[in-house]
Every structure is written in C-alpha cells, then in structure tokens.
Amino acid sequence: MKIGVNARLLTKPFTGIGQHTKNLFGELARLDSENEYTLVVPGEVDEDIFKSFPENVKIKVLKERKIGTAGMKKTWWEQISVPEFFEKEKVDIAFFPYPSNPWTKDWYKKGIKTFVTVHDCVPWTRKEYRKGFASKMYHSQTKKAVKLADIVFTVSEVSKKDIIDICGIDKNKIKVIYNDADIVYKEKISEDYKIKVLEKFNLKGKKFFLYVGGYDERKNVSYLLEEYAEYDGEAGLVLAGGKLFDKKLYNSYEKKIQGQNVVRTGFLKEKELAVLYQNCSSFVNFSRQEGFNIPILEAANCGAPLILSDIEVHKEIADDAAVFVDTDKKGGGVEALKKVFRHQKEFSKKAEKLAEKYSWKKSANKIIDVIN
Asked: What's the pLDDT at 14?
C-alpha cells in the first residue's frame, strides 16, 4: 500500500508539528515495513532527519510556486500541488499531519482514504490567529475540510472534546494518539558535550529555570518574565526558542528582559536542548492553550522538574508529576519556582516516572490498527 504524507513541517523540526511528523512517521514506517511512505516537503530537509527514516520512506521535494504572497504560495502547495502529486502517485492513503487536507469535495470521490491530524483548535478559537481576510478565509476552509476526512486524529482527550464541540464531528471518527519525545532526549550524552553546550551559553556551574518554545501570545512568556522578575533566588532563566514569524502576534520581550538574569539561546538543535533540560532546575511553561505540548515530555525524559500552567491539557498530560500554576493570579509563578527549586530531586523523580507512560511506538501501532 502507498501512503502519502504532507510533511511540510519537517522543514521546521523545532516546532511541535515538526517533531510529531518526524517521530511518528519514522516509527510508523519502521513498524509497518510492508507499506511505502512518501513524505512531501516544500524544501530541503536536514540531512540528520533524512537519515533517521527507514528504507520504505521516500522524501519528495515539491517546490512552491514562485509567484504570489507567502500565504498564497503555501495554500496553493497544500491544496493543489500536494493533492495532484498524491493522485499522480496513486496513493491509497493521503495523510495530513495538520489541517491541510483538500477543501474541495471532488477529492473525496477519488477513493483515496484521507486522514488528518488536528493538534488543537487554536486557529479556530483565538481571533489573533486569523487576522486579515486571507487568514480568516484559510482557517474557515480548514475547519470545514476536517469534517470531510475519513479519520481525524488528535493528540489529547482535551483536543478531542474541542474538535467535537467546535467542528461538530462525530466522536467515533476521532482517534487520540499521544505524542512522545524524540529519542535524543532518552539517550545518554557525554560529559564533554554537556560542558561544551553549557559553556557556549555561559551556563556552566550555574542554576537556571528553562522555557522552551515560541513567543506567540498564547505561550504567555510575558507572565513568566513578570513572575521571574519577582523571584529573588539564585537561579537564572533561560529562554530557548524565539519568534517564529515577524508579526504582531509574536513578541520579542526585549524590554522585559533588560536588567534580568535571562539568557536567550534562540532555537536549538535537539541534542543541545537535551543538555539544557538535563541541567535546569526546572522546566517552566505557562501557556494559555495547547493541544499537547511536546516539550513537557522532552523535559520529563531528561528528568527536569515540571512547572506548568493549570490548563486542562497540561493536567491530562502531566498528571500529578508537575506543579500547576493559575496564571490569572499574580505571585503563583514565583511561589512555584521557589517550591520546585527547594525540592528538585522529588519532582525530578516524578518527571522521570511520567516519561515512561508515553511512547511513539504505542501511538504508531494505533495508527496501524486504523490503516489495517
């Protein structure tokens, strides 16, 4: 059987969907060796990612058109170029790891089974993600198209409930497959490499809290910085990530960082990030809305204590392994930073135990059951 995958986000492997695409389809192809997987991307993929896939995976570079705005080129690629390629290749299953399955009903008459993964409903529930006519039109169409897919996958029970409520999809059509962390966060790293990375960011011998991710508003980095400004302990703060796009939705926080013991690393390679997870006093994430939040499991696999916002999906994923903070209340973050800093070993053990619950292999096997 031939399975085609819109693997666009492999070109941005530091994003959650990029991690999901890389790890899930790598594991899926290894377990499902009889089927052939073609991953379609708009540009070159990092050589290490390419090498990580088994022999039954092909990566096809399908360039975007040169004419039009970035949004127009992206939409044409998703809605015209990729479906035409899948049809030409005579795939049996077309898999879309984010809402990008064809908008037109004619596609669904071709006999190609269509799977789509909806990680969260953020673009459909938060107005700041659909400013402008083109953006509103795009997200309106993706929402309608999700209903047309044969199977809808999602990454948490919280997201499943949101999809049912917001998209009006039958619950029996939605399958929950949890994420996991990349294998690099489960492997031992040499002391020499650790020292090299810590020295690179002037962190050797220092204690620090760690945030990993983007700077868009829902990530609530502003609350983290405000709470950290009131923290009077010895640990610094490291922000690993940054602005994904140069838009008003994405902040830089330069003014808030001035005068504070804050280090910004930008987006890092996975092995570098693993070093920071392994050496931090705690991983901190105060996001307002998520579908899953993979960095939680990256941190847990590295034994990093967890401090999280008390949103429902964080409670589902982290269970009793984290300290949860009501980010609507001032001072809650400071209290959590001090508590976890005092009891790092206790919360580190909880995080390591949590990591054992999740597996890309388990998730891939659930998809294989659907394929079969």
From this structure: 84
